[in-house]
Design brief:
Blueprint: E1 3-6, E2 13-26, E3 30-35, E4 43-45, E5 50-54, H1 58-63, E6 65-74, E7 78-86, E8 94-99, E9 104-108
Antiparallel strand pairs: 1-5, 2-3, 2-4, 2-6, 6-7, 8-9
Amino acid sequence: MGEYLCNPLAEDVVDAEISVGGFFSDDELGVIEASDNKAKPKIDVPAGEARRFTISTQDEYDEMVCSWTVRYRTKSAGVVTAGFGTFKRLEDTVHFDDVPILGGPARVVPRSE
């Protein structure tokens, strides 16, 4: 299991920066935010390919609301920022039996902007 940045564009995505966030609720402590303080290296994703940027467990998805912000460059569009997010248990993801860019089944997190 892992999170992949998929590039469906006809051009390369370069210098992609991905920040991860989310939160979970606890009966005693209320809402607890998770923040990713570790710097991640920038990644490039060639046109029509995918790159894994992190790995999470099913337990994390079951307990947390997760979000990702992706900032990247392309030759034609310049700098682009996109947001993605999913509820607990990946309830709002879209499941596909075959995602050719990943070579098999996958859950896709919809863009939230």
